[in-house]
Design a protein that fits this description.
Layout (H helix, E strand, L loop, with lengths): L35 E6 L21 E5 L7 E7 L8 E6 L3 E5 L8 E9 L2
Antiparallel strand pairs: 1-6, 2-5, 3-6, 4-5
């Protein structure tokens, strides 16, 4: 037992049957391999050629691909919208070591911001 919990530091992996914690802090040590972050499905605002793709952002208003090499075949991705939405957000594609796609069924009328976190299952 330690008096100061900041005294414990492990350079490698920690394995345990159960871990009890007051809060979980995730440090991003590699920007290309994030396991937590934010995303935005951007609404189509300018579409002069009416192809359903925003002329400036190239967004389809229905999806966004989040790049992270931390994703794998056993990954679970949890998304949480930051505001009320009229449709559900879903992780519709995972590309191992590349990233994942978050989508909605119909194009959004306003930008939809969300948080995401990846949990690896063993």
């Amino acid at each position: 037992k330690t008096e100061n919990l900041e005294d414990i530091e492990i350079a490698g992996k920690l394995k345990a049957v159960s871990i009890e914690s007051g809060k979980l802090v995730i440090a991003i040590t590699d920007e290309s391999a994030k396991t937590i972050g934010e995303g935005v499905i951007v609404a189509v605002k300018i579409d002069e050629n009416e192809d359903g793709i925003d002329d400036e952002t190239e967004s389809d208003g229905r999806s966004i691909f989040i790049e992270t090499s931390a994703i794998g075949s056993n990954s679970k991705v949890f998304v949480t919208p930051k505001s009320k939405t009229q449709q559900s957000l879903a992780v519709t594609e995972i590309k191992n070591s590349e990233g994942f796609t978050v989508s909605v069924e119909n194009p959004v009328e306003e930008d939809v911001s969300f948080d995401w976190v990846i949990i690896e299952e063993k």
